[in-house]
């Protein structure tokens, strides 16, 4: 059975029927669900839980939509919710890690499967390295180096001075390099 | 990567080339998996429309727990007093009564969901699942009915049926979900959650790959519930489903109002 659901973004109207200055949660969901999904995976939420986590993030967004400042980066704001939701899910996942399936399914015998396997291994390596960083450093690194958000926006969203944000970015880059090297040396996949 | 986007940015060391390549690969967004978008949208719409239900349920459960404790202690004390008065040599039943019927605890939502699903699948226990759905595990003996016990709230019963359908849908148990929706339609044709039932009906048709039926049901839903909170999920499900080839027999009849 083909159950492919292609997103129909335009049809998602505001969940509460409101328009105007207030954040349009349905529109945000339509446009940023993939971003939140990606964030949650980067933040260590297991694929088995990520659907529930996406739901939790958007419920939090819905409940805090009146506090959103449109002059700030929407993605940095969403990232803040994702961090909090992910930390809850990571706590349970860590306890179960031994028995969980791998983050990425092993590739099968299809053409290009080897390349996919290698790509999955590289992504897994980076995610594990990110997972080993201190939270405050990882947040700045992900927002800046992966999501391309400007540092002043990041600093505002994290409520830290700009220099502090830069300092965290510098340290995070050092940490991630060290972590990747350590995992590579240990034969991480 | 350079942090030169800000004029006052301090000089930062770029990432090593191989690690930068890892970052470049990771920049691509990972889309929500097949079917997950419609499911999540439906759940968001539902949760957003009932923001305080869970906390109300928890408060109710806690109150019910305290009432049960007080009742059992009172009954036990009364029985013990009666025993002493009759000079009965057997051990007083106070402790036994309390131990045999532990006070209900605040519910774990995940366990509660399981309990609903399993209990609702049993038509015999349908009558008892609604009053305290989060505290009625399948294995537990049904509480004794007292003359003062109230009839279960139909809203809770309705919700339990729909929760059964929703859980079944998340586990791709289409027939089980369809049965729960049909049961709800039969028991509560114009119930308080009829709108939610119809929205789930559309999503279920879409998930089963029954595109034509899903679109028809969605159009009907939109006519009847033009301002529904569930409309986004209904539209998303119906508009995007691809008709399955050989999807199996259609067992779910489109519902009308």
Describe this structure in words.
- The complex is a heterodimer of chains A (189) and B (257).
- Chain A is mainly alpha-helical and 189 residues long.
- Helix content of chain A is 64%, strand content 0%.
- Chain A has helices spanning 25-42, 47-63, 74-96, 113-131, 135-146, 151-158, 162-185.
- Chain B has helices spanning 17-26, 36-49, 53-85, 94-100, 109-121, 154-170, 174-187, 194-207, 211-224, 231-240.
- Chain B is extended, with a radius of gyration of 26 Å.
- Chains A and B meet through α1, α2, α4, α5 and α7 of A and α1, α2 and α10 of B.
What would you say about this model in short?
By secondary structure, chain A is mainly α.
What overall geometry of chain A do the principal axes of the alpha carbons give? globular
Using the CA coordinates, give the radius of gyration of chain B: 26 Å
* Envelope shape of chain B: extended
N-end to C-end Cα span of chain A: 33 Å
How many E strands of chain A? 0
Number of strands of chain B: 0
Describe the oligomeric state of these chains in a short phrase: heterodimer
Q: How far is the first residue's CA from the last residue's CA of chain B?
A: 59 Å
Helix fraction of chain B, binned, reads 55-70%
Structural classification of chain A: mainly alpha
Radius of gyration of chain A: 18 Å
Element-by-element helix/strand order of chain B = HHHHHHHHHH
How would you describe this structure in keywords?
heterodimer; A: 189 residues; mainly alpha; 7 helices; 0% strand; disordered N terminus; B: 257 residues; disordered C terminus
Give the secondary structure arrangement, pairings included.
The complex is a heterodimer of chains A (189) and B (257).
Chain A lengths: L24 H18 L4 H17 L10 H23 L16 H19 L3 H12 L4 H8 L3 H24 L4
Chain B lengths: L16 H10 L9 H14 L3 H33 L8 H7 L8 H13 L32 H17 L3 H14 L6 H14 L3 H14 L6 H10 L17
Helix pairs in contact in B: 2-8, 2-10, 3-4, 5-6, 6-7, 6-8, 7-8, 8-9, 8-10, 9-10
């Amino acid at each position: 059975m083909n159950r492919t659901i292609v997103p129909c973004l335009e049809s998602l109207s505001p969940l509460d029927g409101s328009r105007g200055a207030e954040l349009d949660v349905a529109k945000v969901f339509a446009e940023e669900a993939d971003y939140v999904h990606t964030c949650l995976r980067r933040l260590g939420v297991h694929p088995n839980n990520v659907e529930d986590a996406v739901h939790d993030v958007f419920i939090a967004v819905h409940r805090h939509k009146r506090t959103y400042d449109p002059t700030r980066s929407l993605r940095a704001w969403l990232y803040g919710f994702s961090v909090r939701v992910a930390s809850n899910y990571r706590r349970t996942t860590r306890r179960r890690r031994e028995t969980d399936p791998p983050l990425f399914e092993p590739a099968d015998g299809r053409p290009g499967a080897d390349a996919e396997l290698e790509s999955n291994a590289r992504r897994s390596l980076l995610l594990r390295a990110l997972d080993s960083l201190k939270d405050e450093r990882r947040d700045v690194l992900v927002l800046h180096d992966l999501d391309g958000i400007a540092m002043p926006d990041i600093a505002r969203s994290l409520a830290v001075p700009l220099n502090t944000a830069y300092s965290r970015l510098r340290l995070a880059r050092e940490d991630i390099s060290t972590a990747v090297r350590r995992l590579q040396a240990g034969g991480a996949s | 990567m350079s942090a030169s986007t800000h004029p006052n940015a301090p000089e930062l060391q770029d990432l090593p080339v191989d690690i930068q390549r890892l970052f470049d690969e990771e920049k691509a967004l990972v889309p929500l998996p097949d079917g997950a978008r419609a499911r999540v949208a439906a759940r968001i719409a539902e949760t957003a429309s009932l923001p305080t239900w869970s906390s109300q349920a928890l408060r109710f459960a806690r109150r019910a727990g305290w009432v049960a404790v007080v009742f059992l202690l009172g009954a036990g004390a009364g029985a013990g007093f009666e025993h002493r008065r009759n000079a009965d040599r057997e051990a007083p039943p106070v402790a036994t009564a309390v131990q045999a019927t532990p006070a209900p605890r605040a519910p774990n939502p995940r366990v509660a969901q399981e309990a609903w699903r399993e209990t609702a699948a049993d038509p015999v226990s349908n009558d008892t699942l609604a009053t305290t759905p989060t505290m009625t595990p399948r294995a537990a003996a049904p509480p004794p009915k007292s003359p003062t016990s109230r009839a279960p709230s139909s809203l809770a019963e309705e919700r339990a049926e729909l929760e059964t359908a929703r859980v079944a849908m998340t586990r791709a148990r289409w027939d089980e979900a369809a049965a729960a929706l049909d049961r709800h339609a039969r028991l509560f044709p114009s119930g308080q959650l009829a709108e939610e039932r119809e929205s789930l009906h559309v999503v279920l048709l879409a998930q089963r790959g029954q595109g034509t039926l899903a679109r028809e049901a969605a159009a009907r839903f939109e006519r009847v519930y033009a301002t529904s909170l569930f409309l986004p999920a209904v539209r998303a499900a119906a508009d995007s489903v691809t008709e399955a080839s050989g999807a199996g027999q259609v067992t779910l009849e489109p519902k009308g109002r």
